[in-house]
Prior knowledge:
The complex is a heterodimer of chains A (486) and B (219).
Chain A (H helix, E strand, L loop, with lengths): L1 H18 L4 H25 L5 E3 L4 E3 L1 H30 L5 H23 L3 H19 L5 H34 L10 H7 L5 H19 L7 H8 L2 H30 L2 H22 L5 H22 L2 H32 L10 H4 L1 H14 L6 H15 L3 H26 L14 H20 L4 H11 L2
Antiparallel strand pairs in A: 1-2
Helix pairs in contact in A: 1-2, 1-4, 2-3, 3-4, 3-10, 3-13, 3-18, 3-19, 4-5, 4-10, 5-6, 5-10, 6-8, 6-9, 8-10, 8-11, 9-10, 9-12, 10-12, 10-13, 11-12, 11-17, 12-13, 12-16, 12-17, 13-15, 13-16, 13-18, 13-19, 15-18, 16-17, 16-18
Chain B lengths: L2 H24 L3 H26 L2 H27 L13 H18 L1 H7 L2 H4 L1 H17 L3 H23 L4 H29 L13
Amino acid sequence: MWAVMVLAVPAAAGGVAATVAWKRWVGWLCTGAVGVVLVCGVVLAAQVVNKRPILALGGSLRVDALSAFMVIVIGTVGVLATWQGVRYIDNEIASKRSSARHGTLYAVLVQGFITAMLLAVLAGNVGVMWVAVEATTVITTFLVGHRQTRGALEASWKYVIICSVGIAMAFLGTVLVYLAAQHAGAGTHATLDWTSLMSVSHRLNPGDMRLAFALIVLGYGTKVGLAPMHSWLPDAHSQSPAPVSALMSGVLLTVAFYALLRFKAIADGALGTAFPRALLVAVGLLTLLVATSLLLSQHDYKRMLAYSSMEHMGLIALGAAAGTPLAVAAVLLHIMGHGLAKGVLFLTSGEILHVEGTSDIAQVKALLVRRPALGGVFAFGLVALLGLPPFSLFISELNMLRAEVQVGLGWVALITLGCLVVVLAAMMTYARRMLFGARDDAEPVHRTPAVVTAPLIGALCACGALGVLAWPLDGLLRAAAMVVVR
Amino acid sequence: MSASTYANVLELAAGLVIVCAVVTLWRRSLSAIVKTLAVQGIALGVVALTLGLHQHDDVLITVGCLVICSKGALIPTLLGRVLASEPKSRETSPLVNVPASLVGAGALIFLAYGATAPVVDLVGTTPGRLIPLGFATLLVGFFAMVVRRKAASQIVGLLLVDNGIALVAFLATAGVPLLVELGATLDVLLVIVVLRALAGQLWSRFGVLDLDQLRELHD
């Protein structure tokens, strides 16, 4: 029942938004709907930790600890983004850049986007999951191009072309997994179900599975933003409206990564851990190196955040490559921490863009003295994102590195550490330019409304609390990791 | 139908799919390329139909008819409309010229045979032997997307990739479950509609359909 509610509530909110003209209460209704998703996620998590998975709608929905965890992540970042979305549409309408019709379209698309992501993590069948991930591409294309500028249209063109090819590769990979499962004698009806795939995984044909897993890493890897199919990411994330960037960067990337984690468990069963590990190390390192080198020369703070997302996806790919229970639990904690920190930063950058009118790093100065609240949130968000204590990204990065050393990937951990230091130095330099400096005496100190800063501060506190206590997520993280580790 | 007719029809139709893919690399006129794509879509539908008739599988026969309608008629019509919005519909400056593209396509077909050997072994029947052709179509589509610069050419490349994957799916597994198949077809249709809308906006607002002119976002 709870699983069905997770999908039905945001879909219904989208339906309401479609039938009435845009009003502020519609926006708050949508935020409320995502809040309900978060509550349902917590209830589901309590029901499935260390117990059997829940099946709903005749087995088409399947909730285990990993899916419940992903629902919580989507719910958390979704609440932040839809909360700020109300203000985004208000600002757009007030500045005559868009009409109330655009507001309606935006609200409907965002609810559809969130529902599609939830379906992807709840689907019991790999085919349905694929359809849901592809649906996120189609829906978000319109959201990326929502501002209708030349840059936004160019970004959406690149996005839809590259991601469609990528997701097509993932489809071919899924077909080959289906072929292997047919020949391994999985039931005719449920051949594409997680449960039956996991139970026959050791009997799947290795030659076929090797090709299948490579295609799946390339395909879903495109949506995760892993190199070599990453070039859409900085454009799409920097051109989208801020709440959409927050959702795409904070959760959509990791929803695609969730698919990779599931398939890795099947490939581990069929091929042993060596081949999947080698493949993930290769794409993870390549992604990390590309992102680090491009982070060194950025002029635009939204693009800077986009490349940082790529860097973090590289990190979790390497963590998943290690593949021990500790490593996967750390990967999942990192997914949550990155979602919170990156969500906060993209939303803050949207507010900075709105009040300063530029996304150029060089033209934003002395935020901490001119706009203390906004600058402070941005500064703490960066501290969290860069993996400094006490925030949870510190713990998760540390544990991923530890796990890599434990499985004999010490050299990978060393390169990763080097990249992390370079990224830290580069982003600190950009932050120093934006945050510090002297205020012009003629200019008053600007206040930022509490309705903007309160949820962002709350999210940063949550990220900090997770880093210090690990409670209340630790049991769920361990249970979720065991779903995909054997 | 007899066993030899079945094998012949299947080989002919699958062969036609890869031939059409190579022809799209050879022709420069975009309207001719769209016609070639329509032929390829019909050939793909015939593969599904033949398999369905041979295995007495009603679902597969239905899917075959749907494929002929969507990939043979509907999608080429939509693509034709994209071209109508653009006066000079010729691929003027591909990054790789036509003879070199054809040599590249040959190399990709070899690569496809090499990469799919384990899959061919696993399936091991007449349809199984033809799987490399689907894979080759996919690679040719990928190649076309990389070397061609017109917006419409990139959509063509995407469709080649998709048709190649559909061919592999039919030959290897006699089609994935209907729900997934329908979802996949619907997605391609949606993507084409989305791309058509985007191309229209780019053309009407900025007069751009050559992707080399899209250089606003870069590092």
